[in-house]
Amino acid sequence: MTPAVRTVCFTLAAMSWMILPLWAQPNDPLRDQSTDRLELKDGTQLQGMLLDESPRNLEFLEINRPPGKPMFAVIHTISANNKKRVDKVSGEDRQKLEKLVDRLRNHTQIRAAAKDSLTLKRTKSAILETDQVWEYRGDRFILISPLDEDTTRTFAVRVDQIFQAFEHWLPPKQKPNSPIQIVLFYSIDSYSAYLKKIGLQIDNPAVYVPHTNQVLIGSDLGSFLARLEVASAGHQAMLDQWAEREKRLPDDLNQLAKRLKEAGWSPDAVITEVQTRREAWQRDFKKAQGQIQVVDRRNQSMLDTMMNQATQHLCHESFHAYVENYLYPQGEYEVPIWLNEGLAQLFEHAQFENGTFRIDLPPQELLASLKDRLERDNGLSLQRILQTEAGSFILFENLHEGRLDYDVAWGLAWYLVFQKQLFAPGNLDRYVHKRSQPAPTVEETFGESVSRVQAEWVAFIRQLDS
Question: Which of 184, 196, 122, 125 minimizes the C-alpha distance to 155?
């Protein structure tokens, strides 16, 4: 498999971290399931379902069932030049195959592409007021970054993963006129200055601006990376000095031994003193190395935290942008604010781990907070949020204020996704209505009374592990 191949991994229960090629598995683990079959020119054979084929690429979902382990799948994006042949099932067999693939939907992991496989280019940016920014063009977005190349590549990979997740969980219903533009700012100050310039008075560290179709991400990553570069250069200079001293150490100790011998020291005393000096030097060197390593680890931890915070903001605001561009444009549709924000929270709190992106692990801190709330109000907050007008959740307000009940919105979205199969084809549509039509009541939307929804939701949240 070439580095350019992107993969999306699915599992039904516990996740399997090792992708076993089907041709290496004994006794055909999918013998009871008819599948499409893809053979590549290098001899690789895949069983699963062909999702899409164009003159340039194929998307093929490989289904694996390792003996004694849960079934999982991997979506491969493969160059059409590598295809030897593909055989597709049809009729009833295809319907069964589609149902099997759909069952894998909720527990999805998106695997990262290799950073060096992405194409970045230098360009100008009127927004950032500089001609030294990196630009990355994905299938559905353009990323603009004033940060260094490696950091930009990290973000590009993550944004690719995020949009792949959106697309596979919530397939696009339409195509926008222009791609979403995602802008990373060098510092909070430069971000705030731009918001003021376009007339936005908000405290959010990130925001989606619908009328310009821009996701704006503010952080102090740029200034922190600049300080980190200075610190790293200083540390390297110190280590270089120690390296030079280490090269001179044998000669210095030989000179010391010579002076001690000339001063009348006995051979044994000279050896002991030289050894003592060598050990003292080594202790000092290790101490200096240790101090540098402690500072480097602390700096890396701070950098990781800032990267993760910026990524969370990216997930949240990019979801709003995806809904507007590819699902339900606000000029035509009314998306309940609790649903829009709840799903944005679900993606915001997804996990990036071992190079994968997943949403099927509830964030422990948020879940614990929600459970505490339920102990106090037994779910009455759900009734409030279902009746909340959009003004209470304005995108330009602070998304992290507790008064907005975002933990409840997250909990309701989690319930709908993992208990009511919200991501199954067509299910999301029932919670959205066209502006040209009368708005349905909560009872009509959910198909049952609010009190019943509340009781089922509270019971579901309470049984989640926290």
Answer: 184
